[in-house]
Design a protein that fits this description.
With 724 residues, the chain is mainly alpha-helical. The chain folds into 4 domains: 7-155, Valyl/Leucyl/Isoleucyl-tRNA synthetase, editing domain (Isoleucyl-tRNA Synthetase, domain 2); 192-352, no CATH class; 376-554, Orthogonal Bundle (Isoleucyl-tRNA Synthetase, Domain 1); 558-723, no CATH class. Helix 14 (338-352) links the parallel strand 9 and strand 10. This is leucine--tRNA ligase.
Length: 724
């Protein structure tokens, strides 16, 4: 200890400011100094730091505040923030600190949360995108100039290197740590050639399933520099250098290519040998046998070592195991490891397999941290559940379904316990449906399939295609709804459309088999039971025997038929509900439908087709209408009087991808023929006493309902209700 001094005694002290616009400045008080961190003395940079900017403005603009703190006018009033870093999209007449304060509407240093976000944004923009505007490092990027300025001042004895933690360091035991800077080994992450190799792989060869993950990887790759990779105690691999002092490699640095170890762990350790003290039965390989030359042969394909006691057959076995499993096709991890573990994994794969990029990881998938009923798991809250607890309470499959439904983005997934009973009920209903089929399959309809069967087979094919895409892109919530909730609904819709004719026996069995296969990634046990007992391959395992179903390309025609039937029945039910209190009872209906395009529909299609041809772009589901569409519809004789109807019709065509190859002669579905063929089923399912399907073309102008009936068009029948 040299001497002690109170901080207030330093206020007003004139100090030298190396490389500053102002040669000398004064020590000033700052309310937000963290007295628990370092010396409590910091450099004020009001041009870059929103906090320092607001503190300086408060001292300059408030006489009473200066008087209260004992700050003289000459210490603050002559000094204005000088912008030394030009940031894109920030006017040269202001500073990044002033800009972000304005952006976040921050008026006081007491607005800590806003200030933290503003500071992070300002420093990020300055560091990565800013350029120095003056001095000996003018025009250099701020990230580069920072290191150059440090070295320049150190070499001139104007500064010394000082390091401290960003915040309080708490150990896993909950104790506050005292951090000391000691001699350290570093991994040179950020080295230009090494970093460029990683960035090329990230941009050209990897799948992250989510742009946020990719952006995080890119940002972290740009940010990560020298990484302290050793520590003096704890678990870990010893540093492989002769001049080490007992240091071990830290866990993050030591675990980034352990997936390669997985490929041969069964040969080195075998089963029930967690600590690795015993060699694997049948191989008897000792830890001391695993020399650098052995590892190089297994992982790099170098020449087999001649001085090893490991038989060549065992070496070759390990080499083949590695080649079979590598590269890492998919690494699933938490979002908190994007900025360290996953980026380091890419760096280290690039270093170890520098001559063979085929061994570098192919995809990373990241997710958030599980919540239970929108709350973090905590023993104090009583909502902590281990996987074992959840399985015992809910069953394995119900837990898996709830987890799949919890979400699979970077947002924290929410495990909703209130949903579990309905999940169990639906899983049970699948088993009961299979058992119902097993008991009644010989009583079901057989022989030639009818239209409702074709519609259902088309729905099955469509579901299989959609599910494959969802699973491939790791969208498990979407996959679950597709293969579980929606697929069950499609089956029930088919059952209803079958009516008195009943379900077709072989199609029920086909449905059960498909259901078992496409649901098996999420609910394997229920799927296994269904497949082994009711599929075309009884007693076989869905996990080991079944392949992903091969189905025909689904046809748009049958999807549109299902939509037509579904929408028509929903419209009838909706109108009946509105008339429940009428007397006499409304229990009869006419459905007026259109079997060909009207003149305004043809014109609307022609307008859309011409716009798509001119732009060379087919409007897709979810796209906004082209800007020219409304203008051109208003210019056409018939569509100008039917603007809303035209837009609704074109939205329907785009929604069902019927605008890809536009046909003007006849619609893909004849509404009158389809609705007529399902007349009895529609009547029964809507509880109507009588139902009549009428072609719009047969409605006379003298008919009482002509005006209303004339509003029907393709895909949009008009429902007329009557009393019996």
């Amino acid at each position: 200890l040299v001497f002690e001094i109170q901080g207030r005694a330093l206020v007003g002290l004139k100090v030298n400011a190396p490389m500053s616009h102002y040669g000398e400045v004064y020590v000033l008080p700052l309310d937000t100094i963290d007295e628990r961190k370092g010396t409590g003395i910091v450099t004020s940079v009001p041009s870059e730091s929103p906090e320092d900017y607001l503190a300086l403005m408060a001292l300059q603009n408030k006489d009473a505040y200066r008087l209260k703190l004992g700050v003289h006018d000459t210490w603050v009033l002559p000094f204005s923030p000088i912008s030394t870093v030009q940031v894109p999209n920030v006017d040269g007449t202001t500073t990044i600190s002033a800009e972000v304060c304005k952006r976040y509407n921050i008026l006081s240093i007491k607005e800590k949360d806003k200030l933290m976000r503003a500071k992070k944004e300002a420093y990020k923009e300055s560091h990565y995108h800013g350029r120095i505007t003056c001095g000996i490092f003018k025009d250099k990027l701020a990230a580069e100039a920072k290191t150059l300025a440090r070295d320049h001042m150190v070499n001139r004895n104007e500064a010394l290197v000082y390091a401290e933690p960003d915040g309080t360091v708490i150990s896993r035991s909950g104790d506050e740590c005292v951090v000391a800077l000691t001699d350290q080994w570093y991994l040179a992450y950020g080295e230009e050639k090494w970093k460029n190799q990683v960035m090329e792989h990230v941009e050209a060869s990897m799948n992250f399933f989510n742009d946020q993950v990719k952006n995080g990887i890119v940002e972290s790759t740009n940010w990560l520099k020298e990484w302290a990779c050793s520590r003096s105690f704890g678990l870990g691999t010893q540093l492989p250098f002769e001049n080490r002092r007992g240091e071990v490699i830290d866990s993050l640095s030591d675990s980034t290519i352990y997936m390669a170890m997985y490929t041969i762990a069964h040969i080195l350790q075998g089963e029930n040998n967690l600590d690795g003290k015993q060699p694997s039965p049948g191989y008897s390989i000792q830890a001391s046998d695993m020399t650098d030359d052995v590892w190089n042969f297994i992982f790099l394909g170098s020449q087999a070592p001649s001085d090893t006691r490991i038989p060549f057959s065992h070496l070759e076995k390990m080499r083949q195991e590695f080649l079979f499993w590598y590269p890492v096709d998919l690494r699933v991890s938490g979002k908190d490891l994007i900025q360290n573990h996953l980026v380091m994994s890419l760096y280290n794969h690039a270093a170890i397999w520098k001559d063979d990029r085929s061994k570098w990881p192919r995809s990373f998938f990241c997710n958030g941290h599980i919540l239970i009923d929108k709350e973090k798991m905590s023993k104090s809250k009583g909502n902590f559940k281990s996987m074992k607890d959840a399985i015992e309470e809910y069953s394995s499959d119900a837990t898996r379904v709830a987890l799949a439904d919890a979400g699979d983005t970077l947002d924290d997934p929410n495990f909703v316990t209130a949903n579990i009973p309905s999940i169990i009920t639906k899983l049970t209903s699948l088993i009961e449906f299979g058992e119902f089929y097993g008991a009644h399959k010989h009583d079901m309809r057989s022989g030639e399939k009818i239209l409702c069967d074709t519609i259902f087979m088309n729905d099955i094919a469509r579901t299989v295609k959609l599910a494959h895409g969802f699973y491939e892109s790791m969208q498990f919530r979407a996959a679950l709804h597709c293969v579980f909730y929606d697929f069950i609904n499609l089956r029930e819709n088919w059952r209803h459309l079958c009516g008195k004719r009943g379900m077709h026996s072989s199609l029920v069995q086909y449905y059960i088999e498909i259901q078992a296969i496409i649901l098996s990634p999420i609910a394997p046990h229920v799927s296994e039971y269904l497949y082994q007992n009711f599929s075309l391959n009884p007693l076989h395992s869905v996990q080991s025997h079944a392949k992903w179903p091969e189905v025909d390309q689904p046809l748009k025609k049958y999807e549109l038929i299902r939509v037509l039937l579904h929408d028509t029945m929903n419209e009838i039910r909706g109108q009946l509900r509105k008339n429940t209190k009428k007397k006499p009872v409304v229990n009869s209906a006419q459905v007026v439908c259109c079997s060909e395009y009207t003149q305004w529909q043809r014109e609307a299609l022609q307008v859309l087709k011409s716009i798509q041809t001119e732009s060379g772009y087919i409007v897709k589901r979810g796209d906004p209408f082209p800007k020219a569409l409304l203008t051109r519809l208003k210019q056409c004789a018939s569509t100008s009087k039917m603007i809303q109807e035209s837009l609704s019709f074109l939205a329907y065509m785009i929604e069902h991808e019927l605008n890809c190859e536009i046909e003007f002669e006849a619609p893909i579905v004849n509404d009158h023929d389809i609705l007529s063929s399902f007349l009895d089923e529609i009547r029964e399912l809507t509880n109507l006493k009588t139902l009549k399907i009428v072609d719009k073309a047969t409605v006379l102008s003298s008919d009482t309902h002509y005006k209303q009936a004339s509003k029907s068009f393709i895909s949009k029948p008009i429902i007329l209700l009557f009393t019996s």
